[in-house]
TrEMBL record:
Residues 179-365 form the Helicase ATP-binding domain. The keyword Coiled coil does not apply. Its EC number is 3.6.4.13. This is RNA helicase. One of its GO terms (molecular function) is ATP binding. SUPFAM superfamilies: P-loop containing nucleoside triphosphate hydrolases (SSF52540). It is an enzyme of class 3 (hydrolase). PANTHER family: ATP-DEPENDENT RNA HELICASE DBP3. Pfam families: DEAD, Helicase_C. Transmembrane segments: none annotated. Residues 66-82 have a biased composition (Low complexity).
Length: 606
DNA sequence: AAAAAAG
């Protein structure tokens, strides 16, 4: 199995403006396939990392002290599978949240269960070619050069050890570029395809930065029962925050960096207790964070890192006021005094413009075709009348069941438009002999998390979901995404189908299309064409028809929503972007829309 | 019009 995805990749011209590089002959090894690590005993290797890593401790447990020299002896590592740590390094560690860390459970344990349930991962038949020749683009001032290996980056031994524990062999494309940029302290707007390792891309630099500055950074004030996180990671759904937290905990394991999650629908007291134990990195959904801020249980004044996952979603109409409030109207340091990183697979232009408010001279990074689906997903569109949808779904599921191997559960994720629709379809599937669960915003948080677990484990291999599950969730083994109801926005479609075809695996996405979706015809047809999918002739006819009234549909969002926009960043070839303008750190409209190929239409920015 | 996010 290829382990080196980018050994021959060119370095991006440092200092270039509008630099464009193409990682040549790459063999991308996605996260979940990196289970052939060099044989390192990752659990017993002594840790010797730079000096002291630090917990941002609560004062009650001996938190930050003005000398910068942390007290406390070697930690009691009862859960890490190693009884003797590598000596002195641990001795200067801050044990500000000793109690918390003594309890730090091994976050790598859960992995094993899933692997067992689904059997060993196959490493054959993966289409690594899909990652060859992946277009990468950076723009901004003095863009740091990408790296080819984790070893090239000074992340620190403790973090490197966790990377090995995660079985990451080589950085993914977005990681190769984003990590050096972030480590250089630069603000970043990063676009990368679904399932390409974005979480690690912003977590590694944050964890590393917190570790490195542990003795030099300013000290948090001592305020009883108030937590002072150094980093804030916001995401649009509770389950995604949960997932980021789980992942970040792995990366931060035994680094002394403490990660806490806070989201709604769960008992706040548990979260408050966790916060009181000390928090370096806070992962949160906006609503619960605002609550915590209002209760004065969290202060953002020490924030040095701000990461928005699914950033375009976080800045769209529904979320923007809340995000502005958190980022601009509380006590968070302004751009320039904090490092801000925005990540998403899609990034509409108008949202990019909005995002500039939160950034300071940032680097724009695009890996792959922005807003595009990956070639690993086979996309099908079928014309299905509203009244026929259920029986059609049944046919698909029957066929799938017939084809599927006995032991292997092929997970199917079915997206519907409404919460009521999700309930109804789940019920209907169940009474027709298909074990299904449903997840949507009217379910209790317990029900939501149970449904997701039940789906992941294969207990209910069908999950009916609203858009709550459309973004970011990493659910291994989803073989099929069905858009029972198509979304109105092509970006939502991109995120939905991105739940399959992850980690280098192929996936299937089937959409039920009818007259109700005519507004999506054109963007959908365009997207499929870019992804080298077969576009049915009838869909093209729909597209041509909707094209006629296209100017009208702009009225919905931000005055003009340009459906042509950036679904294919690469339509005319990424290389042609070389002339892009940089204006105050962001890509100006002229450069942005220029070079986008034959279908270029007036930019929404113009 | 719907979904999400606080309770």
């Amino acid at each position: 199995m290829p382990t080196s995805w980018s050994d021959s990749a060119e370095k991006a011209p440092a200092g270039g403006v509008g630099a464009t590089t193409r990682a040549s002959r790459t063999n991308y090894v996605p996260p979940h396939l990196r289970n052939r690590p060099p044989s390192v005993d990752t659990t017993s290797a002594p840790v010797s990392h730079y000096g002291a890593a630090v917990g941002n401790g609560h004062q009650g447990h001996g938190g930050p002290n003005p000398t910068g020299i942390r007290s406390g002896g070697p930690r009691n590592d009862s859960s890490g599978g190693s009884s003797s740590r590598g000596g002195g390094a641990w001795n200067n560690r801050n044990n500000g949240w000793d109690h918390g860390r003594a309890r730090e459970s091994n976050p790598f344990q859960d992995e094993l269960d899933t692997e067992e349930a689904f059997g060993a991962q196959e490493n054959t038949g993966i289409n690594f070619d899909a990652y060859d020749d992946i277009p990468v683009e950076t723009s901004g001032k003095d863009v740091p050069a990408p790296v080819n290996t984790f070893a090239e980056i000074d992340l620190g031994e403790a973090l490197n050890l966790n990377i090995r524990r995660c079985k990451y062999v080589k950085p993914t494309p977005v990681q190769r570029y984003a990590i050096p940029i972030a480590l250089a302290g630069r603000d970043l707007m990063a676009c990368a395809q679904t399932g390409s390792g974005k979480t690690a891309a912003f977590c590694f630099p944050i964890i590393s930065g917190i570790m490195k500055s542990s003795q030099s950074g300013p000290r948090a004030p001592r305020v009883p029962r108030m937590a002072f996180p150094l980093a804030l990671i916001l995401s649009p759904t509770r389950e995604l925050s949960l997932q980021i937290h789980e992942e970040a905990r792995k990366f931060a394991y035994q680094t002394g960096v403490r990660v806490v999650v806070a989201y709604g629908g769960a008992p706040i007291n548990l979260q408050l207790r966790e916060l009181e134990r000390g928090v370096d990195i806070l992962v949160a959904t906006p609503g619960r964070l605002v609550d915590l801020l209002e209760r004065a249980r969290v202060s953002l004044q020490m924030i040095r890192y701000l990461a928005l996952d699914e950033a375009d979603r976080m800045l769209d109409m529904g979320f923007e006021p809340q995000i502005r409030r958190i980022v601009q109207q509380m006590d968070m340091p302004p751009p320039g005094l904090r490092q801000t990183m925005l990540f998403s697979a899609t990034f509409p232009k108008e949202i990019q413009r909005l995002a500039a408010d939160f950034l300071s001279t940032y680097v724009f990074l695009a890996v792959g075709r922005v807003g595009s689906s990956t070639d690993l997903i086979v996309q099908r569109v079928e014309y299905v009348l509203e009244t026929d949808k259920r029986s059609h779904l049944m046919d698909l599921l029957h066929a799938q069941r017939a084809n599927g191997d006995q032991g292997k559960q092929a997970l199917t994720l079915v997206f519907v438009e409404t919460k009521k629709g999700a309930d109804a379809l789940e019920h209907w599937l169940c009474i027709n002999g298909f074990p299904a669960a449903a997840i949507h915003g009217d379910r209790t948080q317990q029900e939501r998390e149970y449904a997701l677990r039940s789906f992941k484990s294969g207990k209910t291999p069908i999950l009916v979901a609203t858009d709550v599950a459309a973004r970011g969730l990493d659910i291994p083994h989803v073989a099929h995404v069905v858009n029972f109801d198509l979304p109105n926005d092509i970006d939502d479609y991109v995120h939905r189908i991105g739940r399959t075809g992850r980690a280098g695996k192929t996936g299937l996405a089937t959409a039920f299309f009818n007259e109700n979706n005519s507004s999506l015809a054109r963007p959908l047809a365009d997207l499929m064409q870019e992804a080298h999918q077969e576009v049915p002739a009838w869909l093209s006819r729909f597209a041509a028809r909707s094209n006629f009234g296209r100017n009208r549909r702009g009225g919905g969002r931000f005055g003009s929503r340009d459906f042509r926009r950036d679904t294919s960043f690469n339509r005319g070839g990424m290389d042609s972007y070389g002339g892009g303008h940089i204006n105050n750190g962001y890509v100006a409209s002229g450069g942005y829309s220029g070079g986008y190929g034959p279908t270029t239409v007036t930019s929404a920015w113009d």
